[in-house]
Structures
1.
Amino acid sequence: MTRADAVAALRNPLSFIAGRWTPEPRTVQRSALSALVMSVVIVVTGGAVRLTGSGLGCPTWPKCTANSLAPTGAMNFHSAIEFGNRMLTYVLCAAIGWAIVAARSEKPYRRSLTRLGWAQFWLVMSNAVLGGVVVLVGLNPYTVAAHFLLASALIAVAVVMWQRTREGDGAPRPLVGKPVQQMVWFLVLATVLLIAAGTVVTGAGPHAGDSSKVERIPVDWETVAKLHAVLAWIVVTLTFALWFVLKAVEAPKDPLARTRELFLVLLAQGVIGYVQYFTHLPEILVGLHMFGSCLIWIWALRVLLALRERPEAVVDLPGPSTEVTVGTRA
């Protein structure tokens, strides 16, 4: 590497890498998938922090204690769990960074992919700050709910980026009629309400996140849990009805497959939800339920994204060869 190369790498490392590396489309897809997987992992491990009562294992932020960045030998396993979850944020950032680098290096360059990668990065940074606020305010349930909802927004962007890596850059073409599209948007909205109601159940329920006195949302958690169950049945019914509608209009196989998969995920989540309710919320089942909520959100978005296709973009150029295709997928 010459001195000029070193200067160029320092000035714009992404352009420097992109000029010397062209990843395969499958590599870009895998990088986006790794960011999505880590987005789910950070949610599940965050749930483990709460369910083990380790939310204030590190009583301050950004350090673990007033005098130490990491837990000290005198601290207990709650500190290790909380600090471990904080460290996983760096792993998540690494996965997103890989996705950004791969998207920036793909040929031809697709600005939309890079923007989705950076959107994930800034969501992680925002949620890291919000996570610090959660600790500083003693696990206030409203901030905890906002922390989870922001993580759900991160998952949504990661799903879109993963989908876009497997598509071209042409204008989206709908695969179903407008009434079906509206039905799916209603399904997605019902899913958002379901997830939001779940955060209220969490904020009012017995798993406060720490053994000390922690503020709870002043509602009866069992009543909210029943409302949450009603919303779940609405989502299940909409999904079941959507599958019949898609069959009736002879929709392509992808929307049908994604809808069928969502229905199966909902059934599994429903079983876990009812078992945990009648067994007084054992921690392991609550953790599985959190994982299931991530899967429901992912598959609801996959159903929505399956309703259209994006072909390869075609650019008209002067000269003997008048068309150049970009955004080719493997």
2.
Amino acid sequence: MEELRVTGGGHLGPIDSSRIPRYAGAATFARLPRLDQVDRADIAVVGVPFDSGVSYRPGARFGGNHIREASRLLRPYNPALDVSPFERVQVADAGDMAVNPFNINEAIETVQQNALDLTADGARLVTLGGDHTIALPLLRAAAERAGSPVAMLHFDAHLDTWDTYFGAEYTHGTPFRRAVEEGILDTEAISHVGTRGPLYGVRDLEDDRRFGFGIVTSSDVYRQGVDEVVDKLRQRIGDRPLYVSVDIDVLDPAHAPGTGTPEAGGITSRELLEILRGLRGLNLVGADVVEVAPAYDHAELTGVAASHVAYDLVTLMADTLTPAAAPMTEEK
């Protein structure tokens, strides 16, 4: 089947859904070209089908392709930010990293090297997980490319700064403790957003504060409102290189049931998107969307939410890059 694509600004865009139905053909993210179909990508979307670090329900290894399927309905113009990201820069789907499902240490090394390879020419990376273990090697690569520790906003129901599970140092609940220990995070500019639910003890919070994390709970978002939360986050981040990590369980299970460790009382998909949009203009150097487990997702609720989160992250990145000159053909 011939790929009839929307083009503009000298960039190859998504398949034209006014000429080829959205449900037809291969599912790349937002129906964008594959990386091997373009000379280079300014932003690459890549999947990491890995969930060997989970502590409760497995299945996030299938999350990347579930997000891709849900992203078929995305369109090339983002009115919330008044940006056509696929016209402004070249965005492409880099496929999936092939990681060892039986060896976490090897998988982490593979993700880190693949991330470095994909960003070797200056491209920025949006990663579709996969469980949250993969954030550690992605942060390592981001810090190496930035040449310094990076700021981070971590959207999650959980802190993910625990020490070990069953003696294992590398799991989906430990990546940010390891990242602080390794010195790849700027501890004056890191924060959790959307945390909630029971903890093992008060020491979890004490350790977290000691590492330098600020905390914006889901209750804070509800009581203070999006604008106040965004203002606090922007003050904390400043102009530092920023990495954004989104565990989809930051959303209430009503909005994202398809995840491994759901917690009641989360933020809405609208609140999450508005907070992300409030980061416009910051130096976003990398991002991930993780912990989508399609086996628990009915009516694609989680996949749709995750696809829009990834789309807004791509848009935020594109917005800070050099705009293209030519208009993109309008798609219905």
3.
Amino acid sequence: MKDGEPDNRLGSYLRARRELVSPAQAGLPPGGHRRVPGLRREEVALLAGISPDYYLRLERGRDRNPSPQVLESLARVLELDDVERAYLLGLASTRPRTPRRKRPEHVPPRVHQLLAHLPVPAFVEGRAFDVLAANSMALALSPRLRPGENRLRSLLLDPEEQAFQQDWPKATADFIAALRTTIGDDTDDPRFVELVGELALSSQRFRTLWARHDVRTLDGGTATVRHPVVGELRLHRDKLPIEDVILVVYYPDKDSDSDEKLRLLATLSQTR
């Protein structure tokens, strides 16, 4: 996993997060020339109530078993939300990690049947955003949703997908943060290693956002896209876990402009 310091994930995360907190956010006077973005190590230590030397050991990976109380204090100083706080606690977990047997991601036959009956765009994705199956409406919405594509790779490297997304910067930030959350401590998974390595080499946007160590979940939500035929569509997104894969469904508000456009898209797709 190309992640700067793969054996010191706790230290890498602490450093990345403190660089994103300004002195003003932490209630400190700006004062003087600062050689580093965000907070200094000694400032984090002071605000968290620990010694600067101990915090330095944490960042440099010399102490990997901080107490929950120390981690909670650091989460407060670094202004972590619930997802980020849980991620931080997980990085310092002392429970033994047992290698998991990697199984090929499999779409159950009943899910193929479900896809065929759904009148709205729907597809199945794996843990690394690989598209494993899709219905005809998903392909009508975007050819990048055909099986074999990777949603994150398309988002970062395909100009058509970049134009398709109304808010491409937010979409890329959300997807990359969700990928880091999904990976968790499974850093030796060959698919994750392959994808992160490929994108780190080919996308400056990926390298920039990956270095931030953002984490978040990417479940339900609403997306606005620009379809080249029917125009702008505002669609809700739901993600439903089924065994080892995720069913993703996009649907509009009933009787909305997007609903009408989606019905038109279905008609055009059947005609073709």
4.
Amino acid sequence: MRRITRIATVGIASAALALSATACGGKKSTDTPSSDGTAKAAASAAIAYDIGGRGDQSFNDAAYAGLEQAKTQLKVAGNEAEPTDGEGEADKVQRLTELARKGNNPVIGVGFAYAPAVKKVAAKFPNTTFGIIDDTSVTGPNIANLVFNEEQGSYLAGVAAAKASKSGTVGFIGGVEVPLIKKFEAGFAQGVKDTNPNAKVLTKYLSQPPNFEGFAKPDLGKAAAQGQLDASADVIYAAAGLAGSGAIEAAANKGAWAIGVDSDQYNQAGLSKYKERILTSVTKDVSDSVFNLIKSVKDGKPEAGEIRYGLDKDGVGLADSNPEYKKMTDLIAAVDKAKADIIAKKITVKTAP
């Protein structure tokens, strides 16, 4: 099983700092010296963060890791733009427009919420490549749709949860009840039930659209997890961005297992206090998707259309950083078998509950 380590090497800013940053207030492009020692403008890429911003220990930080990798390996400059609380579509349009006007290429919207803005702005900048993560609803000759089989990774998490649970009750917490997060729920519940038909899966969503605070408030995740723990759940899987850190805290304090999401949360500095109780994490190789798109633009062959990352390409999976996880040989064998069966199409994972 592949161990995800790249994200763990990136220094993480505090969540508070990320949430307080203003739109388009990210880092400035820098000049890189040429071979003769004179300064010349570097190629520049930009990412616009989703709710929770950089420092969420999860989704946004994975995108940031890809940008940092591109800055180091491809010698491109990087710009970042943070979301604002309660922002609307016009704010996202303005953010992407400013990033494109400044010459960034590509410009990447982190999260499906950027779909309407990407559609509008990409048409105005036909020579700029726009990436959008977790969305295929908007298309165009200069739009790259970076998407993942989240349900497949979540199925493996369900297998792991069912094998690790002693009470026979596990919990799923979704940040916002939207189709993307329901893919996580569907895969997880199917994995649990296929492994232990008698297991009980408790499900809780933290907010309903158009209220997206369920991705941003750890106290909501903590309260939801506490409710599930009180109902005998001993494994909690949260697909809730920054709010998921609250669920991890609650599970750890109770001595239960937590399953992280998007990044290998066992290795996230901001969660180090609880790492011993983070059994595993469902990883999405968002960092590679960001890096690959930036590289394609730099190479003069920009990606466009749907670019999908699944188990067959190690685009999703389970992290194995926790030494306790590695000791669970029966669990690992069950996860490995499930992974092989999904890749071989012996198991079809649901995308809706």
